[in-house]
Specification:
The chain is of the alpha/beta class and 116 residues long. The chain is built from five helices and five strands, in the order E-H-E-H-E-H-E-H-E-H. It has a five-stranded parallel beta sheet with strand order 2-1-3-4-5, sandwiched between helices. Strand 3, helix 3 and strand 4 form a beta-alpha-beta unit. The longest helix is centred in the N-terminal third of the chain and has 11 residues. The radius of gyration is 13 Å and the shape is globular. The two termini are 14 Å apart. 28% of the residues are buried. The model has no long low-confidence stretch (mean pLDDT 93).
């Protein structure tokens, strides 16, 4: 029984590579900005969200705060471009299960999603 996965990541190469690796295991949707991610989250309520935190239009933190307020709670794997004490402190409150620092090997992200 495949789970629904949304990959919201501005880096198109990473987004497409992840989708290719994961579509054998999950029903995968992709988008490159936070506004589109919010629309998909509201409409489809995916089980898992791979979230690049530096999305254009609506950043990852704002997106997570918005969906938490609307009681949309997918499991979240956050992809960070830098470590942030504020983000790490917010992670539990915002429902982030895992955080990975980019760049990292594609297999690390794929394996973490499959473990979730």
């Amino acid at each position: 029984d495949a789970r629904r996965l949304l990959i919201a990541e501005y880096n198109e190469d990473l987004r497409l590579a992840l989708a290719r690796q994961l579509q054998a295991f999950h029903y995968v949707r992709c988008c490159g900005n936070g506004a589109e991610a919010l629309e998909i989250l509201r409409r489809e309520q995916p089980d898992l969200l791979v979230l690049g935190m530096n999305l254009p239009e609506l950043d990852g933190l704002t997106l997570l705060e918005t969906i938490a307020a609307e009681n949309i709670r997918p499991m979240v794997l956050a992809l960070l471009t830098y470590r942030s004490a504020y983000l790490e402190a917010s992670a539990q409150r915002l429902g982030i299960e895992y955080m990975l620092l980019k760049p990292c090997p594609l297999e690390n992200i794929v394996n973490r999603v499959l473990d979730m």
